[in-house]
Amino acid sequence: MWCDLFDLDINELMGIMLFKAVRQCSQRVGKEFLIDDIASEVTKLHGLDQTKEAIQRKLDMAHDWQIFEEHRYREIWEILQPDAINVLDLSVIAQGRYGLRNLVLAVLATFIFRMRAIARRRKALGLASDTKKVWLAIDEAHNFCPSGRSTLSKDILIRWAKEGRQPGLS
After folding, report:
1. Contact predicate 42/21, CB 8 Å
2. Among 11, 47, 53, 165, which is most buried by a count of CB atoms within 10 Å?
3. Are residues 46 and 84 in the same domain?
4. Which of 2-11, 89-98, 117-126 has the lowest mean pLDDT?
5. Cα of 126 vs its chain's centroid, Å
6. Whole-angstrom Cα distance, residue 38 to residue 25?
7. For residue 133, what are the domain limits?
8. Inter-axis angle of helices 49-64 and 13-29, to 10 degrees?
9. pTM of the model
10. DSSP bridge partners of 169
């Protein structure tokens, strides 16, 4: 997703380096890494200084968006309340070239989809699960799933629409 966020091809130098740095962070600390952790991994990788500097600029830019935590990883349930209607107003996030609204929606939708799929499997095995069914309503959905082009959130939203009923998503 990081390569998609910056519109980098995973088969080109910057995409390869960013992918490796994110993978190193994942292997080292799990899912709880920050932008500074990625930047640190980029500096450790072998590669052209020019490529490293370009990635560092992109990471600095992402830091300036102020949608990523600076000091700690935050669990999704610190933001969303289970057993309640949660309204996320993404209009306060600038649309921008890199599609920050799409990023936020993609991360949340992917997480919720995954949690509901796990809950469904647990239920099928006769195990308890406290993950509730989820309804997702998107105002101006055509901005997140435009025809003829891709966005960060398009794949998960299409999957949600096609497969979501099975894990309890609507």
Report:
1. yes
2. 47
3. no
4. 89-98
5. 30
6. 6
7. 76-163
8. 60
9. 0.66
10. 134
Count of domains observed in the chain: 2
Alpha-carbon span 31 to 126, nearest angstrom: 28
The residue type of 8 is L
Say if residue 60 is in the same domain as residue 80. Answer: no
State the average pLDDT over residues 84-94: 79
| Final residue of a structural domain among 64, 88, 105 | 64
DSSP string across the chain: -HHHHTT--TTSHHHHHHHHHHHHHHHHHTT---HHHHHHHHHHS-S-HHHHHHHHHHHHHHHHTT-S-SSS---GGGTSPTTS-----GGGS--TTTTHHHHHHHHHHHHHHHHHHHHHHHHHTT----PPPB----TTGGGTS-TTS--TTHHHHHHHHHHTTTTTB-
